[in-house]
Design goal:
This protein has a domain of 178 residues: 3-Layer(aba) Sandwich (Rossmann fold), CATH 3.40.50. The protein is built from ten helices and seven strands. By secondary structure, the chain is of the alpha/beta class. It is 35% helix and 23% strand.
Length: 271
């Protein structure tokens, strides 16, 4: 059973599909990752300046962009880049930034108990089925006083695309996300001290629908849900989708909203 209440009659994507999709996207990811860079940089700024660490973990490290940023911020610390997609790790290893590159699952971390002071995770945890398991593992792996800084996505993400598809057919075409209230509840129940937890919309604009769908595929973040339609989408349905999305057009182009969750949690120094 999943740990969030408002899923539309299905669980999150199968993790093997997620790993395979992001592995395939490793070479193209950085070329289209403007949102991921902006969100990750904002998350870095949210880590308290007082934080020092001997060992950090970049959870869902992807191509290693933020592993390298963490290495610059904490040059004396040992770094661990951990990702479920081996293809991402293979892409990241030659560029350095961490001492270890480990294939692993955020819900079952292959890391020793109380082995680091900082866990950083930007736009990865939305793919985890049990966020409470992620938080429990972070509690286990962090030392007392350690920080978990994460960004994720919640309901409202790609809402324009979801609503446009809804006018066309009843299939699941857009990845599902938790409600922000679920993040609030799970963090409050986790045993962590919640230093900060909020959500901010980021709106990107595209000249046409093809540009958006191409970017989602290049990121490895296209539709991974069960319940999605099989086979090619018919021309008539695609035409109807284009027409529906065009109703959203603004002066800057076609909008795609990402509802970003930012959280900074601290492990208590005493029970």
């Amino acid at each position: 059973m999943t740990d969030f209440a408002h899923v539309e009659h299905s669980s999150l994507p199968d993790k093997r599909q997620v790993a395979a999709s992001f592995s395939r996207a490793a070479a193209s990811y950085d070329s289209v990752a403007a949102l991921q860079r902006a969100v990750g940089n904002q998350l870095l700024q949210r880590i308290p300046t007082s934080v020092s660490t001997e060992r950090w973990v970049d959870l869902g490290s992807g191509t290693g962009y933020f592993s390298r940023a963490l290495n610059r911020r904490f040059p004396e610390a040992q770094g661990v880049a951990l990702d479920i997609a081996e293809g991402m790790l293979q892409h990241a290893r030659p560029q350095g930034g961490a001492e270890q590159f480990i294939a692993g699952d955020a819900e079952r971390l292959p890391l020793r108990t109380e082995s680091c002071e900082l866990m950083f995770s930007s736009l990865a945890l939305q793919w985890c089925e049990s966020f409470s398991s992620v938080l429990a593992e972070a509690q286990r792996v962090l030392r007392p006083g350690g920080i978990l800084a994460f960004s994720s996505l919640c309901v409202g993400t790609l809402q324009e695309l979801r609503e446009s598809w809804r006018t066309v057919d009843g299939f699941v075409h857009v990845n599902r996300f938790r409600h922000f209230e679920d993040y609030q509840r799970l963090c409050a129940d986790s045993g962590f001290e919640v230093v900060s937890l909020d959500t901010q919309p980021e709106v990107l604009f595209y000249p046409d629908l093809r540009s958006l769908t191409h970017e989602l595929k290049a990121l490895g973040a296209h539709n991974l849900n069960s319940g999605r339609p099989n086979g090619l989408t018919g021309r008539a349905r695609m035409r109807a989708l284009v027409d529906a999305y065009e109703r959203e057009r603004r002066e800057q182009g076609l909008p795609a909203t990402y509802q970003v969750v930012y959280g900074v949690l601290q492990k208590r120094t005493s029970p």
